[in-house]
Automatic annotation (TrEMBL):
<protein>
    <recommendedName>
        <fullName>Glutamate-1-semialdehyde 2,1-aminomutase</fullName>
    </recommendedName>
</protein>
<dbReference type="GO" id="GO:0030170">
    <property type="term" value="F:pyridoxal phosphate binding"/>
</dbReference>
<dbReference type="InterPro" id="IPR015424">
    <property type="entry name" value="PyrdxlP-dep_Trfase"/>
</dbReference>
<dbReference type="InterPro" id="IPR015422">
    <property type="entry name" value="PyrdxlP-dep_Trfase_small"/>
</dbReference>
<keyword id="KW-0808">Transferase</keyword>
<keyword id="KW-0413">Isomerase</keyword>
<dbReference type="InterPro" id="IPR005814">
    <property type="entry name" value="Aminotrans_3"/>
</dbReference>
<dbReference type="GO" id="GO:0008483">
    <property type="term" value="F:transaminase activity"/>
</dbReference>
<dbReference type="GO" id="GO:0042286">
    <property type="term" value="F:glutamate-1-semialdehyde 2,1-aminomutase activity"/>
</dbReference>
<dbReference type="InterPro" id="IPR015421">
    <property type="entry name" value="PyrdxlP-dep_Trfase_major"/>
</dbReference>
<keyword id="KW-0032">Aminotransferase</keyword>
<dbReference type="Pfam" id="PF00202">
    <property type="entry name" value="Aminotran_3"/>
</dbReference>
<keyword id="KW-0663">Pyridoxal phosphate</keyword>
Length: 112
């Protein structure tokens, strides 16, 4: 039986450069495609379980599907998703970062 990840990769190569969204996601002969994750584990579309040593390359330090994170995200979703305007929580977070990073006098939040 052919791997579902292999089939998905063949399909992905028709629409995505190298079949993936970034070169770091490419593996030979083909990458495994994740179906879901829990704690420090990834589960692929073929039913395999992996330890996720990368944890999204940094931001998943609490693991996948952390109950505290899920609760906090749900609460925020009830308030809105993206404003494009300043919020009080930005100020609270910036103050906390400046307090905890001695060399940071000010911060700016950006994405890559």
């Amino acid at each position: 039986m052919e791997s579902k990840s292999k089939k998905l990769f063949e399909e992905a190569k028709k629409y995505l450069v190298m079949g993936v969204n970034s070169p770091v996601r490419y593996f030979k002969p083909y990458p495994f495609f994740v179906e879901y994750a829990r704690d420090c584990y990834l589960f692929d579309v073929d039913g395999n379980k992996y330890i996720d040593y990368c944890l999204a390359y940094g931001p998943m330090v609490l693991g996948h599907r952390n109950p505290y994170v899920i609760k906090s995200v749900k609460e925020q979703l009830e308030r809105g998703t993206l404003y494009g305007c300043p919020t009080e929580k930005e100020v609270v977070l910036a103050k906390e970062v400046v307090k905890r990073v001695p060399s940071a006098e000010m911060v700016r939040f950006v994405n890559s």
